[in-house]
Amino acid sequence: MNDAPETCDVLVIGGGNAALCAAITAAEAGASVLILEAAPKAYRGGNSRHTRNFRCMHHGPLGPLIEDYTEEEYLADLMKVTGGRTDDRLARLAIRTSEECLPWMEAHGVRFQPSLSGTLSLARTNAFFLGGGKSLVNAYYRTAQRLGVRVLYEANVTHLTLEDRQVTRVAYSHDGQDKAVAPRSVVVAAGGFQADTDWLARAWGPAAKNFLIRGTPYNRGVVLADLLEQGVDQVGDPTQCHAVAIDGRAPKFDGGIVTRLDCVPFSIVVNKNAERFYDEGEDVWPKRYAIWGRLVAEEPDQVGYVIIDAKSLELFMPSVFPPIAAQSIEELAQKMGLPPAKLRTTVDDFNAACGDTSAFHPTELDGVATTGLTPPKTNWARPITEPPFYGYSLRTGVTFTYLGLKINERAQCSIGGTPMQNLWAAGETMAGSILGQGYLAGFGMTIGTVFGRIAGKEAASHAN
């Protein structure tokens, strides 16, 4: 709908998973809801368009999920990747509530498929969306439309007026005009600031100019910056983010999931000097893939190179781009712009450090490790000897940033520790409340779904 109301019960800023969960929940509670989405309709949905799955606690089989996944195991997985940098109360709230979210998602149009095999190993922990994130987003928009939620696309929020700890007016531009709405309640679900590469560079330094942005180019942090400048409580470190190593040939923005590389466990990874710099076999991929974006960011020119051989080519989900292939390590080095003699030495040293590979198991920690090599490879260490040899370039791909709005268990924002009267946050905008560092596959969707629903419920209750 293209009408622009001057008031509404609940205004939702953003158009992705968290925003839609908030809007649907508020509308079902009887509130009039308006969504302001910065993207054009064809690109609606924020980073949710590129997601594939939802990490879910469950007691016994649930939907496509097998066996069980307990609260304590889920929390232990989260603590491992965050190094304990999380709010325990909010983390447990997200984990516990995730179990009831999956049936709610199905009831609101989301369909699931069996989880994928191979390096993902997620059949017990993560439910995969049939048709991917775009299908999820479209299903939610259809549900929202049936509930009477109004949506304005290409609506760029520019300022929220705060008076006495409440939002009294929201200014935005739409159809080339400056407009405003006076909502009773506001839910901010507008993502992080990762698409503003100048802001990334202020946080990370000039190296950030070499980063690629995996998701939407519309998450520029305008609303986040506006609220932080007005004293709304913040959480998180601007240098922490969900960053993975992606195919170096990916576009600057919006490459999405298809540019991710899952081959690291079966490879050696070298920098531009053909030197290894980290243990490629540290853990199963869903628990460790998100560290590689930061690792590559710390190497010269923020680039890395994956080297595998023919026996590993079918063990992982490939990038949308084909690998570089060669019949020898030296030829591969030349094609990839690496020093051939040095890469030959690195591969030979690695191969010499490999031992018995009979216990190799591609989807489990197998203990097939190197001996006497620094850094070691502690699992899946097989010699790279079988031509053709293959390579991918790696660059840091930022999904979303963790600097955000601090919330409580009601998803309520605050100023000076005192809750605001009518401002809530959900999704990537507040994910830093739980993710101090690192990432766990599918957990961003958990955060968005859980706190989107909470924010929508609280916002509607206040408005009514």
Automatic annotation (TrEMBL):
Keyword check for Translocase: no
Family matches, as Pfam families: FAD_binding_2
NCBIfam families per UniProt: CobZ_N-term (TIGR02485), PRK08274.1 (NF006130)
Domain of life: Bacteria
Residue ranges annotated for the FAD-dependent oxidoreductase 2 FAD-binding domain, each copy included: 9-436
UniProt name for this protein: Tricarballylate dehydrogenase
Keyword Oxidoreductase assigned: yes
Cofactor needs: FAD
Source species: Poseidonocella pacifica
InterPro entries reported in the protein's UniProt record: CobZ (IPR012831), FAD-dep_OxRdtase_2_FAD-bd (IPR003953), FAD-oxidoreductase_2 (IPR050315), FAD/NAD-bd_sf (IPR036188), Succ_DH/fumarate_Rdtase_cat_sf (IPR027477)
Keywords of the record: FAD, Flavoprotein, Oxidoreductase
Taxonomic classification: Bacteria, Pseudomonadati, Pseudomonadota, Alphaproteobacteria, Rhodobacterales
One MF term in the entry's GO annotations: oxidoreductase activity
